[in-house]
Amino acid sequence: MTDQAPAAESGIPGETAGDIPGKPTSASRTTLSHIMTHNDTNLLGTVHGGVIMKLVDDAAGAVAGRHSGGPAVTASMDEMVFLEPVRVGDLVHVKAQVNWTGRTSMEVGVRVLAERWNESTPPSQVGSAYLVFAAVDADGKPRAVPPVVPETDRDRRRYQEAQIRRTHRLARRRAIKELREKRAAQGYEH
């Protein structure tokens, strides 16, 4: 994960001292839809979680690339939650949007919905995840991303929640690093 810092000097998304203008949340929001087949099943006969995770990463990667205006790589995936099993014949919709941006990284929130391909019932949420992407240049080096500009109350809530998750990710990484350094200093192997 890259070192993330708020792009907004004033604390208001989209107001930045940098040269990159902010982009609204809706500019990169996307939905990826896919019908699940028998090739997607696990030993229990439901869709394999890894298949759903791949769709989540694909949709989130498209959103990150759109928002950043170029290549972006997955830095982390956390809080992947499976709420209900997905079945063969389900039409899965993976909805993704940028929730928060730092200097070179973005958090993308994803919701996974499923509906029967041959029924007119509304889709139900079957999963969700948060991913962090780092924007990279042609040499694989981090590059700046535009700040995200939340447009709705829901977008602003997601932005604030993403800041909390970022704080927790950084604190967890720092605590693990300190523990490893302490154990190494005591002569324990990692």
Task: Describe this entry's structure for a reader.
By secondary structure, the chain is of the alpha+beta class. The protein has two helices and seven strands; from the N terminus they run ββαβββββα. The protein has a five-stranded antiparallel sheet with strand order 2-4-5-6-3. Mean pLDDT is 90; it is low at 1-12.
**Total helical elements:** 2
Subunit organisation of the chains: single chain
Chain-averaged pLDDT: 90
User: Over the alpha carbons, how many angstroms does the gyration radius reach?
Assistant: 19 Å
CA distance, first residue to last residue? 20 Å
User: Which stretches are poorly predicted, pLDDT < 50 over at least 5 residues?
Assistant: 1-12
Work out the strand percent. 25-35%
Helix and strand content put the structural class at alpha+beta
**Biggest sheet strand line-up:** 2-4-5-6-3
Written as H for each helix and E for each strand, in order along the chain, the element string is: EEHEEEEEH
The description of the largest β-sheet is:
5 strands, antiparallel
Structure summary, number of beta strands: 7
Helix fraction? 25-40%
Query: What overall form do the CA principal axes indicate?
Result: globular
Summarize the structure.
By secondary structure, the protein is α+β, with helices and mostly antiparallel strands.
Question: How would you summarize the topology of this molecule?
Answer:
Layout: E1 23-24, E2 30-35, H1 49-68, E3 72-82, E4 90-101, E5 105-116, E6 124-135, E7 148-149, H2 153-185
Parallel strand pairs: 1-7
Antiparallel strand pairs: 2-4, 3-6, 4-5, 5-6
